[in-house]
Amino acid sequence: xxxxxxxxxxxxxxxxxxxxxxxxxxxxxxxxxxxxxxxxxxxxxxxxxxxxxxxxxxxxxxxxxxxxxxxxxxxxxxxxxxxxxxxxxxxxxxxxxxxxxxxxxxxxxxxxxxxxxxxxxxxxxxxxxxxxxxxxxxxxxxxxxxxxxxxxxxxxxxxxxxxxxxxxxxxxxxxxxxxxxxxxxxxxxxxxxxxxxxxxxxxxxxxxxxxxxxxxxxxxxxxxxxxxxxxxxxxxxxxxxxxxxxxxxxxxxxxxxxxxxxxxxxxxxxxxxxxxxxxxxxxxxxxxxxxxxxxxxxxxxxxxxxxxxxxxxxxxxxxxxxxxxxxxxxxxxxxxxxxxxxxxxxxxxxxxxxxxxxxxxxxxxxxxxxxxxxxxxxxxxxxxxxxxxxxxxxxxxxxxxxxxxxxxxxxxxxxxxxxxxxxxxxxxxxxxxxxxxxxxxxxxxxxxxxxxxxxxxxxxxxxxxxxxxxxxxxxxxxxxxxxxxxxxxxxxxxxxxxxxxxxxxxxxxxxxxxxxxxxxxxxxxxxxxxxxxxxxxxxxxxxxxxxxxxxxxxxxxxxxxxxxxxxxxxxxxxxxxxxxxxxxxxxxxxxxxxxxxxxxxxxxxxxxxxxxxxxxxxxxxxxxxxxxxxxxxxxxxxxxxxxxxxxxxxxxxxxxxxxxxxxxxxxxxxxxxxxxxxxxxxxxxxxxxxxxxxxxxxxxxxxxxxxxxxxxxxxxxxxxxxxxxxxxxxxxxxxxxxxxxxxxxxxxxxxxxxxxxxxxxxxxxxxxxxxxxxxxxxxxxxxxxxxxxxxxxxxxxxxxxxxxxxxxxxxxxxxxxxxxxxxxxxxxxxxxxxxxxxxxxxxxxxxxxxxxxxxxxxxxxxxxxxxxxxxxxxxxxxxxxxxxxxxxxxxxx
Length: 893
What we know:
Elements: H1 35-45, E1 49-53, H2 60-70, E2 77-81, H3 89-102, H4 122-133, E3 139-144, H5 152-164, E4 169-175, H6 184-188, E5 192-195, H7 197-200, H8 204-213, H9 220-230, H10 234-244, H11 250-255, H12 262-273, H13 278-287, H14 295-302, H15 307-316, E6 321-323, E7 331-333, H16 335-348, H17 353-366, H18 370-379, H19 383-394, H20 397-401, H21 407-411, H22 422-434, H23 438-450, H24 460-478, H25 481-495, H26 506-521, H27 525-538, H28 545-561, H29 565-581, H30 592-603, H31 607-619, H32 622-625, H33 627-643, H34 647-655, E8 660-661, E9 664-665, H35 668-684, H36 688-696, H37 703-715, H38 719-731, H39 739-754, H40 758-772, H41 779-782, H42 787-794, H43 796-800, H44 835-845, H45 850-857, H46 861-875, H47 880-889
Parallel strand pairs: 1-4, 1-5, 2-3, 3-4
Antiparallel strand pairs: 6-7, 8-9
C-alpha cells in the first residue's frame, strides 16, 4: 500500500536523474489571484485528468505552481518537467517513479526505476498502477511540457496506468498543444477537464491587478491598449510590467510593443519562432503579412502545398495561432508575434514583403475579398493593381456612398498623384469628390476619360461606368440637368455590359439619384418623379444607403412642391429615421429630409418642428454643396423670420440665398419663388416699392404672385385693384400647392369684411379653411397680423368648427412670436413625439399591423412595439384606436 513519507527519507542524491526536473518551479514573480482558473484546476483534479494547454508564456506552469501552494491539493503532488530526451519509455517512467517517490509516495521495491536507456515491462506498469490504487489518498502527478513526449507507446502506457489506478492517480498535463487522441476517451466519459489558451488569457481587470502588483500605475486608456496589444498573453503582460517599472512614458511604450521592449522581442524570437522546425519557421515568415490566413492563401504566399497541415499544427500546438471566430478554416497570429515575424522577414528578406503583399492581393481578389485585396496592393505600392481592383470589382460606388469614411477610402490614402493611367485617375477623382474638392475631381475624371483607351478587357466598361457616375454627381452639384441626363445614358450603357453589375447596385442608384436631383432643380417635376420612382427601386438593396437617403429626401421635397404636405412629412421622416438608424451625423446628411419637414412644419404652424428641422438642414452637407438645399434653406429661414416679425434677420437670410449656381442663374421656378418670398418680407416691412420691384422679376404665371400683388394693393388702400388681381385666382381650380388660393380667399374675405359684407366674408373664410384643412395648413390662420387671424377672431364659431387649427403639439415660441392658435383643441401630449414615433403613428392611422409597420420601416417588431408604447404614454391613451383618434384631433396625422 502506498503511503506518504517524509521526502528526506527518500534522498535522490545518488540517482542518475536530474533532480531539478522533479520539483515544482519556485515562484519568484507576483501572482494575481485568479479564482476562475484555480477553481477549474481543483475541479479537474477531483477527476482523473486535467489538461492545461496554451502557447509559450501563457502561464500554464505558473497556474499549477500557484494552485499547489494555495488551493490545498487532495494529496501529495509529484511534479515532472519533461524535455525531448524523455520521449522514450525507460527514461520517462524512470523520472515518473522518481517524482512520485520524491513527493512522498511509498512504492513497493518491485516498482524499480527502469534503466534510463532500457524498456519498460508490463509487469512494472501493472504493479505501479496497483500500488497507486491501494493508496489511502489521491496522488496528483503534474507532467509539465508534456508536448515533448510524442511516443505513442508512452501515451498508451500512461493511459494504462491511469485507467488501472482506480481513481487514485490524478493526472495533470501542461502542454503547448491540445493533447493526443487518447485523451478524447476521458472527455467522452466526463473524466477530462480542459483549460485552454483562451481561458489562460488575462482579462483587462486581471492585467490591471498584475501591473499593480509590480508597482505600475497607468491610465485606463493605456491599460486597455496594453490588454489589446497582448490579447491577455501572460508573458507579454509580465515582461511589459517589468519594463514599465522603468518607463516614464507608458503610452509610447505600449504603442511600440513588442519592439519597444527587447526582452519581449527576444522571448518571441527565441522561445516561439526559433523553437519551430526550419520549414515551419519559413512558413510563419512568408505568411505574416496578412491579418488572417487560410490554407489556400498560405499556399499562394509560400509557393508550397502544405498550408492546411502546417496551420492545423500551429493552432493545436498553440504557437500563438488561433482559429478565427465565425470564419471556419481561417487562422490569425497573435499581433505581437505577427509584428516580430514581419521584423524578422525584413531582416532576413528571403522574399520582399512587397512581393508577398502583391501575391496576397491577387489571391484575395480572386477570392472575392476586394477591400482586403486593395489594402495589400496598396501595401505593395502597386497602385495600378489597387486601382484596377477598385474599378473592375467595386466600381467607385463604395468610395462615393461612404462619404470618405470607409475602410476602402482609408487604404487608398497614400494613392499618389503621380500614379499614371486612367484607373488611378478615376479613383483619385472619386476620393476628391467625397472631400468636395471639385476642381481636383473634374481634372482627374477628365484625365480618366482622355486615357480611357488604355483600359482594355474587363477594366474598360467599369471604368467608363465609374466616370459616368462621377460626372452625374458633378452635374447634380452644378445643377446641370443636361449633363446629368448624358451621364445617365452613358452610365447605363456601360453597366449593361458588366456581367456582375447587379452585385454593385449603388452605381445605378447613384446615377438615378443624381439625375432626379437635377431634374427637380430644373423644375421638371414629372420627369423627376419618374426618375425618383426608379431610384427608389434601385436604392433598395444593401449598400445603397446614401443614394436612398437622397431619393427619399427628394421625393419629400417633390411632394411638398405638389402641395401634399402629409406625404412630404412621411417621406421626410423616413429619410431622417433611416439616417438616425444608420448613426449618420447631421453634418453628413443630405439635408433634404430635414428641409422637407421644416417646410411642412412652417405651413402647419409647428414652430418647434420648424426650428429643429431647419437647424438640421442648415448643418447638413447639402446646405453647402447641394444647390436646391442651399437655396431653399435661407429662403425658408427668411419666411420664418418674417412670420415672427424679425425683419432684420429675414432680410439677412434673403441675402444668403445664392443667385448663381455652377456659373448659371437660378432656374426660373426657383427665381420666381425667391421673388415671391422677398415680396412677402418687404410687404411685412411695409416697403411696397421693394415688394413691387421683387414681383416684377417673376416670370411664370404663379398664382402666389397675383396674391402678393393683391396684398401690396390692399396695403396701399387699393381694394378694387386687389379684387381684380384675386378674381382669376379664385375662379381657377387649385392645381398642386393650394397655398396661393387659400391666401386669395382670405384676402377676398378681408376685402368683404372691410366693405361690411360679413356673410360673404364668412363664406370666403370657410372656402379658405376647406382648402387648407386636408393638409393642416395652419400658418395663414395663425400668423400674427395675417388676415386669417383677424377673420377667425371676427367669426370664432367658424374656428371652433375646425379643431385641426389647434397648434401643433410641439409648438413653442418661434423666432419672434408665440405660436398661438385659433379654434378649439385639447391638451397637447405631455412630451413631444419623436420623428420615428410620428412615422409609426402615421402607419397606425393607415390601419397597418405592427408586423407590416416593422417590415415597411425595416426595423424589428419589438422596436415598433416600443415606439407604440411611447406613443400611448405621451398621448395619455391605452389603446391603438384612441391614439389614432386623438392624434387626428391634434393634427399629428
